[in-house]
Amino acid sequence: MIQSDITKKFVPSQKLMQNLLWISATGIFIFILGLFFAPERIWPNLLLANYYLISLGLGGVLFIALLYVSNAGWGIAIRRIPEAMTSVIPIAGAVMLVLIFGIHNLYEWSHDSVIAVDHLLQKKTWWLNNSFFIGRTIFYIGIWLILSSTIVKISRKQDSNGDLNLTKKNKYYSAAFIVVFALTFTLASMDWIMSLEPHWFSTIFGVYNFAGLFLNSLAVITVIVILLKGKSPYQNIITDKHLHNLGKLIFAFSTFWMYIWFSQYLLIWYANIPEEVSFFLNRQKGSWLIFTLLNVFFNWVIPFIVLLPSWTKKNDGVLLKVCIIIMIGHWIDLFWMIMPPFMKNDPVMNIWEIGPIASAVAIFFYLTFRTLSQKNIVPIKDPMLVES
Predict the structure, then answer these.
(1) Angle between helix 316-338 and helix 351-374 axes, rounded to 10 deg
(2) How far apart are CA 313 and CA 244, in angstroms?
(3) How far is CA 61 from CA 56, 185, 321, 381, 387, in A?
(4) Is 91 exposed, middle or buried (CB count within 10 Å of its CB: 0-12, 13-18, 19+)?
(5) Averaged over 205-234, what is the pLDDT?
(6) Each residue of 270-324: pLDDT tens digit?
(7) pLDDT exceeds 80 at position 100
(8) Dihedral angle, C-alpha 256, 262, 265, 270, nearest 10 °
(9) What is the pLDDT of residue 377?
(10) Which pLDDT tens digit goes with each residue over 345-373?
(11) What distance in Å separates the CA atoms of residue 86 and residue 72, rounded to the nearest whole number?
């Protein structure tokens, strides 16, 4: 019975897919309007939304890679979900190239007139210059696309022949991806976000962004697992043990995120270097302090307290709510990192802020569900499927 069920295709709700398309289209329309009426607001919001989107795709690849290199059998049954998440990388990569047209709206260092009178920025021009920045962006996206598509292609190829060598091959590609990802994502987060405030710097910034990326990706994977748990073919595959493992990972990486957040804050506070403390001083002014507190509460306090008991990690309803809170928390985290240079006094919230992120989330779920419906939702010939 189970053997026959796992070959069934997942069929998403047509109404849901249509609604996701409408939300996506509305967000794109708001972006186009923003180009004419509020370019100083729409470009940073597009950067935020697209960074959120591409992070989910990269988080999916990282989850797959970790399963392979650690020889973890428990996650094989749900591996198609993070594989489907990688389908957003080409779209997000293309949008990141579109963001190049807004480089002068986003980055202070991109203006020659600013560099001419700023001695500190003059010393950084070997790295922060338009042509090298664009070249690095293309390189990051290209290498992520090549490695992610290769890993997913090999994984799906195994459905046809069950060749054990394909698993071994993907272990090598996964190990390569982890190393490349660690280096390139650190640089990308510095390029795309940290350089929004080019006088500020943090050596822990790449690790901090990784923690947020993976925590949010785990939350999204868990949301999709819970939504599909009762549907064929997952109804005979997914158990409370899968949710428990995902819940433990969310609990662990939520605490890891908080550890890195506090480490960055403590070191900057203790050193008290003017170029460093400006980052947190700007985020403690006015209503920005509320965002700082919400950031900690949504990404750590609530998940930590709720997921501390073992039973909550196995409860669909509780775990789903925590994951949605984390998804909102990651948006708050990115808003907290990106927006202060563009909203000096207090955070502002209207269609220019809501439209792009709503569109990004809708595009993500549309592409993920569409990809899941096109292939076997379970790796039917993976050698560790029975264990999973």
Answers:
(1) 130
(2) 5
(3) 9, 13, 24, 20, 22
(4) middle
(5) 93
(6) 988 888 898 999 999 889 999 999 999 999 999 999 999 999 999 999 999 999 9
(7) yes
(8) -120
(9) 84
(10) 889 999 999 999 999 999 999 999 999 98
(11) 20
- Provide CB contacts within 8 A for 181, sequence distance 6+: 58, 61, 62, 65, 144
53: exposed, middle or buried (Cβ count in 10 Å: 0-12, 13-18, 19+): buried
**What pLDDT, in 10s, does the model give residues 55-74?**
999 999 999 999 999 998 89
C-beta separation of 8 from 357 below 8 A? no
Q: 3-state DSSP call for residue 111? A: coil
In this structure, what DSSP letter does residue 16 have? H
Q: What is the largest CA-CA distance in the chain?
A: 73
Which whole-number Å values give the CA distances from 323 to 55, 169, 181, 252, in the listed order? 16, 33, 24, 13
Given the structure tokens 């186009």, which residue do they identify? Answer: 32
Q: In which residue are the tokens 């592409």 written?
A: 367
- Please check whether residue 7 is in contact with residue 376, taking contact to mean a CB–CB distance below 8 angstroms: yes
Residue type at 338 in one-letter notation? I
Take residue 189 and report the two structure tokens written for it.
Answer: 């987060």
